[in-house]
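Good morning,

Both structures are done.
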Amino acid sequence: MHMEAQIEDLTMVTEQLIVLMDQETSLLHERRHEDIRGLQVEKAQLAHAYEGHLRGLRERPENIQNVAPSLLDRLKTSNIAFQKATQSNALALKAAMEANNHVLRAVAKAVADSNANGDGYERSGKTSGKSGPGVSVTLDQEF
């Protein structure tokens, strides 16, 4: 593949990743986590393509000298936008994970507190006190 075509492809993949990450960031802000699953496969494919194009450019950096400056400017502009989109996306993902962890800790604490009200067992094996039976809870953390 010619260097100019490779840079065009890299720029196009970068721009597609930006759009996808912006969508994901918006969904995270709207707390529409279930809608993100549909983007994950495409995001992984685009990230793989992005890495492949970067690898190709790194293998032949001398060929970049013959590329039109306007094409290189477009690539630089898309890379700057990509860095901003990546930072925003990472912050939104971190915030969503922290919120989920906070909810999980609150649920676990509530369950522990409700089980802590038990008074223990008598020698006969029966529970002592007026507390009800223990509560069993299972949490499935999926994001």
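Second structure follows.
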Amino acid sequence: MSRPAPRVVEFFSGPDDLSDQQREILRKMGERFPELTVDELPLDSDKARERGIPLAPGLVIDGVILGVGSVVSAGRIRRYLQPQQE
């Protein structure tokens, strides 16, 4: 059985409770999907400006923006990742 392709998650965070909640969800998702690589970047980074992320938390998976300014649920992340695993 082949290994799933690596997936890149860009998590744009700030010093707020929503970023903390998103960080915890991503930690749990990393346990379920070991092919995930999570890069946590500050909201004031050049990469956030390039992606058009003005609010934390921001979540981008494989170049697709899944959330800006709100927590993306584990269920939504899972639904996004699973069809591409099969």
